[in-house]
C-alpha cells in the first residue's frame, strides 16, 4: 500500500506540474541543440552519421545521469525544509521509498527529451540515425547507468538530510563526469591521461556498454558490461546503507533545515 501511495504521489505531481515538465524538456532540448549543431558543423560529411549517433547516445546518457541528481538529490533540500521527513516518519514510510519514486518524473523528463533530441540530431545529420545493434546490451547499459545515477542521488540525499547542505557543486561534478568520464565520447578516443581518469569513474563502464549495444562500438575494457553491472549493484547497496544510516541519525537528532529557505 505504501509503494502504491508513493507511485500515485509522483504521478499526481507529474500531472499537476505538467507545464513545468514541458518547460524543462524544451529547455533541455534547446541547450543540447546549441552544442550539438555547433559540434556537427566541423565533422566531415563521411563521418557525420557515426558522429551524430555517438552524440545522440551521449546526450541520452547525460539525461539519465544528470536529471536524477536534481530530481532526487537536489529535491531533498526542499523535502527537508518543508518538514516532509518527519511527516513520512510518522506514517512509518521510508524516505528512501519516496525518493526512489521520484524516478517517475525523472524518467518522464529524460525519455521525452531523448525522443525529441533524436529528431533534432537526425535533421541536423540529414538522415535517420543508424539502427540499434543490440537492444539487450543497450538496455543493460542504460539500466546500469540509471542504477548508478540513482545511487549517487541517494548518497547526496543522505548527506543533505543529515547536514542540511544544499550540495550546490553537484552539477559541476556531473559536467566533469560527462567530459572526462567516458560519457560524451568513447574512452578509447580520449587522451591517454584522461583514459585513466575515465576508467576510475563507474559511469564509463555503463556508457561503454550503451555504445556497444547502440552503435556496435567496442568497449575500451573487454568486460565492460559485467564490470558495469557489478559496480551498479555495489553502488546501490552503498547508497541504501547511507540512506538507512541517515534516517537513523534523523530519528535521533532531527533534521537540519533552519535557515534553509
Lay out the secondary structure.
Elements: H1 2-16, H2 18-40, H3 48-81, H4 84-90, H5 95-101, H6 103-125, H7 135-163, H8 170-180, H9 192-199, H10 203-215, H11 224-253
The portion of residues assigned to helices is over 70%
Radius of gyration: 19 Å
Number of helices: 11
Largest sheet: none
Rounded mean pLDDT is 87
Strand content: under 5%
* Distance between the ends: 32 Å
Which residues sit in consecutive blocks of at least 5 with pLDDT less than 50?
none
Shape: globular
Spell the H/E element sequence.
Answer: HHHHHHHHHHH
**SSE-based structural type:** mainly alpha
Number of strands: 0
How is this structure best described in words?
This protein has 261 residues and is mainly alpha-helical. The protein contains eleven helices and no strands. The chain has helices at 2-16, 18-40, 48-81, 84-90, 95-101, 103-125, 135-163, 170-180, 192-199, 203-215, 224-253. It is globular. It starts with a helix and ends in an 8-residue tail after the last helix. The model has no long low-confidence stretch (mean pLDDT 87).
Amino acid at each position: 500500500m505504501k509503494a502504491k501511495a508513493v507511485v500515485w504521489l509522483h504521478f499526481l505531481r507529474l500531472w499537476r506540474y505538467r507545464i513545468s515538465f514541458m518547460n524543462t524538456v524544451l529547455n533541455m532540448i534547446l541547450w543540447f541543440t546549441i552544442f550539438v549543431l555547433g559540434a556537427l558543423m566541423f565533422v566531415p560529411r563521411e563521418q557525420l552519421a557515426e558522429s551524430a549517433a555517438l552524440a545522440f547516445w551521449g546526450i541520452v546518457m547525460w539525461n539519465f545521469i544528470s536529471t536524477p541528481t536534481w530530481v532526487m538529490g537536489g529535491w531533498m533540500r526542499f523535502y527537508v525544509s518543508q518538514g516532509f521527513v518527519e511527516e513520512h516518519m510518522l506514517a512509518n514510510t521510508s524516505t528512501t521509498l519516496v525518493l526512489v519514486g521520484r524516478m517517475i518524473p525523472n524518467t518522464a523528463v529524460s525519455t521525452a527529451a531523448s525522443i525529441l533530441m533524436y529528431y533534432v540530431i537526425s535533421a541536423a545529420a540529414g538522415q535517420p540515425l543508424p539502427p540499434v545493434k543490440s537492444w539487450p546490451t543497450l538496455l543493460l547499459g542504460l539500466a546500469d547507468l540509471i542504477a548508478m545515477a540513482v545511487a549517487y542521488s541517494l548518497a547526496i540525499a543522505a548527506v543533505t538530510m543529515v547536514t542540511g547542505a544544499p550540495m550546490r557543486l553537484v552539477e559541476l561534478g556531473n559536467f566533469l563526469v560527462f567530459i572526462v568520464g567516458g560519457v560524451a565520447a568513447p574512452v578509447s578516443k580520449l587522451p591517454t591521461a584522461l583514459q585513466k581518469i575515465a576508467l576510475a569513474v563507474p559511469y564509463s563502464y555503463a556508457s561503454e556498454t550503451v555504445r556497444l549495444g547502440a552503435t556496435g562500438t567496442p568497449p575500451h575494457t573487454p568486460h565492460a558490461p559485467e564490470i558495469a553491472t557489478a559496480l551498479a549493484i555495489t553502488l546501490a547497496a552503498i547508497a541504501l546503507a547511507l540512506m538507512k544510516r541517515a534516517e537513523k541519525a534523523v530519528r535521533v537528532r532531527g533534521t537540519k533545515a533552519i535557515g534553509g529557505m
